[in-house]
Amino acid sequence: MVYLSVLIPIIVLLTLKRRNELPTSTLKIYIYSFLICALGWELWFTYGWVSGDPVDIRRSEILNYFIPKNINWLMNALGDAGTVCLGGLFITSKLLAKEQSILDGWSWKVFLVLLIWCIGQNIFVEMFLYYDQLAVGKSLSWAPLAPTGPWFNPVLFDFNDRAITLQSQIPWLLMTPILYKLSIYLHRKP
């Protein structure tokens, strides 16, 4: 699943680029989103730099085998940029197709749809894909886009004996307005 979330967006971007159908702003959004996700939390969560457990300690050996620690942050940040960020913008634009371009200016309606996508996918990932490495008792590092760190990390809710915590949701709560504002800016920029 992780490798697909990385490869499919790259294949789509390369195909669109080859056909000269890829707006320059889309590629820039992808690159900037990758950098923000990598530097904002993925590197920090992978290596446990500030009061956190590194990913290889938090998860099962089979996951460590298939996604080694030293490429974990890269795979997650690429998936965040492609599947979550670009995918969220694409889904939002399709849901609101009757509206003008979602990137012409700030719209609370667009922002809300994008926020629901970003938080919703993250809850799904936390509950079904990465539940073993994000479980209660396994500390994620402080990160620039996870400023509460492991020190303030209440459980928001439980579902099927899996806890959804504040710290793992904060990066997407903060990233969504950053992504939307950055996308508007890059779309307008000549």
Describe it for me?
The protein is mainly α. The chain has one domain. It has a two-stranded antiparallel ribbon. It starts with a helix and ends with a helix. It has seven helices and two strands, in the order ααααααββα. It has helices at residues 2-18, 24-47, 55-58, 61-66, 69-95, 108-129, 166-188, and strands spanning 155-159, 162-165. The longest helix is centred in the middle third of the chain and has 27 residues, at 69-95. Helix content is 65%, strand content 5%.
Average pLDDT rating: 92
Query: Number of helical segments?
Result: 7
Percent range for β-strand residues? under 5%
Question: Rg from C-alpha positions?
Answer: 17 Å
- Alpha-carbon distance between the termini? 36 Å
Going by helix content, strand content and strand pairing, the class is mainly alpha
| Assembly state (oligomeric) | single chain
Please write the string of helix (H) and strand (E) elements: HHHHHHEEH
| Uncertain residue ranges | none
How would you characterize the largest beta sheet?
2 strands, antiparallel
How many domains make up the 3D coordinates?
1
Order of strands across the main sheet: 1-2
- Report the helical percentage: 55-70%
DSSP E strands, number: 2
* Dominant shape: globular
